[in-house]
Amino acid sequence: MKNLSIILVFATLLNFGFAQEAGEIFNNNELLKLFGEVKQSVDFKTEELKNLIPLAGEHIMFRIISDDVVILDQHRQQLYPYDKDADYDEKTVFKFFSVSVLNRLLQSADYHKVIFEEREKALVVKYKNKSMERGRQCPPYCPKEGYADNFRYLNIYMVNAVN
User: Fold this and answer.
1) How far apart (Å, rounded) are the C-alpha atoms in residues 76 and 59?
2) Residue in 137, 136, 125, 104 with CA at minimum distance from that of residue 31
3) What is the CA radius of gyration of the chain?
4) Which of 12, 26, 87, 143 is the most buried (most CB within 10 A)?
5) pTM value?
6) How far apart (Å, rounded) are the C-alpha atoms in residues 29 and 128?
7) How does pLDDT run across 30-58, given as a tens digit for each residue?
8) Which helix (H) or strand (E) is 105 found in, with range?
């Protein structure tokens, strides 16, 4: 019975962690110390990103592939680039962020471009003097349908613990 209580507390804490927003806003002067040097960057028009946000759902995903940013919605459906299929599959890891955090970043200033930076330790979305990071990786922790996969392993563990 004690094992079951511990497992239920763990499941509650795990669920609480997924309920929180994905992403955090930083001042640009913190980036080097937190995330390392820039390995690659891609400029993107702010207005174009703002037009994609309503199509994404609650979460939006980014990755730099072949010198271009690839943007997916919360179901891993490609939003950008519009005119071609990007070279990725279901195992390709994207960084996802809550749209609410991205909107706060974009409301922090009025600037014509967003810069996606692949750094030593992170994918950073940079906008004027602020940046967003601390997103989550998908896979393994994907929004929406991915939550079921995240808890499948916990359920297997719980069944084995009870038996």
Assistant:
1) 10
2) 125
3) 18
4) 143
5) 0.77
6) 12
7) 999 999 999 999 999 999 999 999 999 99
8) helix 99-107
The pLDDT of residue 83: 82
What is the separation of C-alpha 111 from the centre of its chain, rounded to a whole number of angstroms?
Answer: 22
Average pLDDT, the chain: 82
Contact 131, 28 (CB under 8 A): yes
- Angle between helix 99-107 and helix 46-56 axes, rounded to 10 deg: 150
Q: Which two tokens stand for residue 152?
A: 């499948």
Beta-strand runs (E) in the chain: 24-27, 38-45, 59-65, 68-72, 78-80, 94-98, 113-119, 123-127, 130-133, 136-138
Convert the pLDDT of each residue in 98-148 to its tens digit.
Answer: 999 999 999 988 899 999 999 999 999 999 999 999 999 999 999 865 444
The Cα–Cα gap between 87 and 29 comes to 33
Which region among 12-26, 71-85, 93-107, 133-147 has the lowest average model confidence (pLDDT)?
Answer: 12-26
Q: Are residues 70 and 64 in contact, defined by beta-carbon separation less than 8 angstroms?
A: yes
